[in-house]
Structures are given as C-alpha cells and as structure tokens.
Amino acid sequence: MSKTTISTEPLFHTFTSDKLILENRTVMAPMTRGFSPNGVPGEDVAAYYRRRAENGVGLIVTEGTGINHPASVSGASIPLFHGEESLNGWAGVVKEVHQAGGKIVPQLWHVGMTRKEGELPNEEALPVGPSGLSLSGKKITEPMTEEEVVNMVEAYAQAAADAKRIGFDGIELHGAHGYLIDQFFWENTNKRTDRYGGDLVDRTQFAVEIIEACRREVGPDFPVIFRFSQWKMNDYKAKLAKTPDELERFLKPLVEAGVDIFHCSTRRFWEPEFEGSDLNLAGWTKKLTGKPVISVGSVGLDGEFTSFSGAKTTSLDGLMEKLHDEEFDLVAIGRSLLMDPEWVKKVEDGRADDLLPFKKEALQTLY
Q: Does the pLDDT of residue 367 top 80, yes or no?
C-alpha cells in the first residue's frame, strides 16, 4: 500500500450537528449483503454490525432494506423493513449496536424498475417506476398511477415511523444509483406529465413528498439523511446536474422538505464533480446547501466499488487533506469495512500497515 504520511486526526474529531452527535467522522457505508433469509435479519447480522460499533465506527448505515411494497427488493434474503418478524430482527440489531456504544440508521429502499419480473420474494409482483421504463429506457410496465405514488410515499413514512419506534438513531433514504427515487429524478426514466414529472426541479416532487411525510412521522429532532448520486448502475457518466447552478436548484427543494444530512455517492471520492474546481460532489453539496455531508467512494482502496473485484489498500493522505479543509464532514467507508471490522480502530491507532486489502470472496461472509 502507499503509506499514509499525514495525521489521521481529522477523522477522529467529534461530529456535532443540531440533531446528531457522533464520536468521530467515520460512517459505515450501506452495502447489500443478502444474509437475511425471508427478509429477516438474524443474530449473525446483528453481530456483523455490532463488530463495527465495537471497533469505533461513528455511524452505521445499514444495507438497503425494503419498505412495505411487494416489489421493493430483488431477492429472498434481502432484509425487509416491515412486518413483525423483520422489524423484531432490526430491533435486535439496534440493541447490539447500542450496547457496543455505536449509532445506527436504516437505509430505506425501493429498487423500482431495476427489479426483474418474477424475482423473489414476491414472484408475482411487477416492477414499478415513474414511467414503467428500465434504466436503458425500455418500457417494461405501465407508469405508476398517482394513487400508487401516494401510497408509496406513505410506505416510506411508515418505515420511518417504525425506525424511530424500534430505537434507530435516524433514517437514510436511498435516492441514488438508479433505484426508485432516483428514477423519478432522472429524465431518462421519468417521462411523466403530471406533478411528478417535468424539469429537474419538478422531478424532485416524489422525493420531497417522501421527506416531508417521513418528517411528519418522526418529528423535528430525528435525523433524516438523504443519499443521492449522479451516476446510475447502467451509466457511470450520467448526471442529474451538469453544472453547480443545476445542482443548487436540484438540492434546494430537498433541503426545504427537511433533509438534515446529504450522503453524496461517488465512485471515487477524490474526483472533482465539475470543471474549474477540486470540490467533489459532497464538497459542492455542502457549499451550496450549508448542510453537513457524507463523502464516499473507494476510501482506502485502489479500485472503485462498482466492480467489486479485489482492491489493494492505499494511502489516506488525499482523504485527510480534504477532511482537514472541511470539504466534507463525514466519510463513509464501504468495502474496507466489509472486509475488516477493525478498520477504524486500526487507523486511529496508527496501524495502517495492518489494514486488509479487499477480496471479492468477502462478499460471501459476514466478517
């Protein structure tokens, strides 16, 4: 690995916002694991998250977990966030993390049109999206009716209410990577002519209603994190906003709806978002909104996460420089933490040489 030569101290400063206090600036990034048979996270999943809390992760964001809609996820072992059994499982996860001194939020998820027809857990459920289009633009199903959209908003709100009820420390709404909320954002998948379609700002309406409905359920003091991205699973060069001005227009309705923290997903955190500035997507989002931001993207590794092939450890100098300059507030670590539960503790103790490289075989194990 390339040596980390500057102090990692900025990573271990306390984070304080009006609704969330964390012991340091580290976040466990959400990573789909698929170890929850019948959608129920068990003791092994609880222990997996607890190990990260025990080793100093400031905030854990769970893997994506399906809201109460029959087509919310793709796969029988993806965790759900509805029904007594699944919610009891998540309550067990929260208990373990809190006992270890950690904080945790669930990522509330609907995969939208990325779901294939006939997939488990509900084979009969058709994929749904704003215009019934796949990410490549192919028509698969009919567009969601306004009634279906309103009901979907309420499903997110119910999940938020349940998250607070069973003891989570906040919620994260997954609005990135070409999943349902992002399908409403993106002009390629949203061709609607009602209030949920239109220009870049108009296309935020679905997300705005979700954020507002969640806020009504959880009250004013419960943290709402919103994850978004420019890139989509089928198009790494896609952009919702092509300029800082467009990004500001896009973010403004989300801020006004009640987002507390933005989780800005990029494949490589060190890459500038727009020409003429070194700021990444998180840096621009913080500059334009004044809100705290989480940066993410191949932290500590030399290969981007979307390939999920092996990756070697690398220097943290560039990350520390951006954090020291307050370009962003929090740092989400994905595959590095998936592979090595002690990643944060090792960095804090100056044991960067002991960090483990990522091996794709790790996807088959809950380390």
A: yes
